[in-house]
Amino acid sequence: MRAVIQRVSHASVKVDNATIGKIGNGFLILLGVGHDDGEEQARKLWSKISRLRIFEDEAGKTNCSLADVHGEVLVVSQFTLYANCKKGNRPSFIEAGAPDVANQLYEYFVELVREEGFPVATGSFGADMAVELLNDGPFTIVLDTDEL
Fold first, then answer.
1. Which domain covers residue 64, as residue numbers?
2. 73: nearest Cα among 12, 129, 32, 1
3. What is the SS3 string spanning 99-130?
4. Model-level pTM?
5. pLDDT by residue (tens digit) across 39-89?
6. Which label site among 83, 111, 117, 135 has the fewest CB atoms less than 10 Å from its CB?
7. Which uninterrupted H or E stretch holds 49?
8. Which residues are catalytic?
9. What angle do CA 79, 83, 85 make, to 5 degrees?
10. pLDDT, tens digit, 9 for 90 and up, residues 81-126
């Protein structure tokens, strides 16, 4: 699994000009599922993300986790994180998970977030979405479970 984590002041996602997910301070997570991924990768990724200490403490140091700041989470599916651009100029997505399996793992990941008690909003898997955010910092981290 791959994720782009952005520390945000607020973020939202729209489908057909209607807001379907919205958060305040927290993480916008763009989540990609690879063809070899399973629940183990989802647990591993969420465990790392939930414990990232990338929020500032009173001294301005990045010492606080999502829980420390009572943050919220917006998870948006993003199969294009598995784009392969090695050949030509048109990306290949053969490394992305099959849509039915990817959707199940996306939903499983969202449930992991909920189980830890974080307010969570989502996009709509497979939909054409418009994501708006105010990146705080900016602070963006890219994680891949193959490298954790």
1. 2-147
2. 12
3. HHHHHHHHHHHHHHHHHCCCCEEECCCCCCEE
4. 0.97
5. 999 999 999 999 999 999 999 999 999 999 999 999 999 999 999 999 999
6. 117
7. helix 39-51
8. 78-80
9. 170
10. 999 999 999 999 999 999 999 999 999 999 999 999 999 999 999 9
Q: Structural domain tally of the chain?
A: 1
Nearest-5° Cα angle at 115, 112 to 119: 95
One-letter identity of residue 29? I
106: number of Cβ within 10 Å: 26
Q: What is the CATH number of the domain that holds 78?
A: 3.50.80.10
- Residues 111 and 66: their CA atoms lie apart, in Å, by 16
CA proximity to 80, closest of 121, 38, 44, 129: 129
8 A C-beta contact, residue 31 and residue 1: yes
CA dist 113 and 48 (Å) reads 12
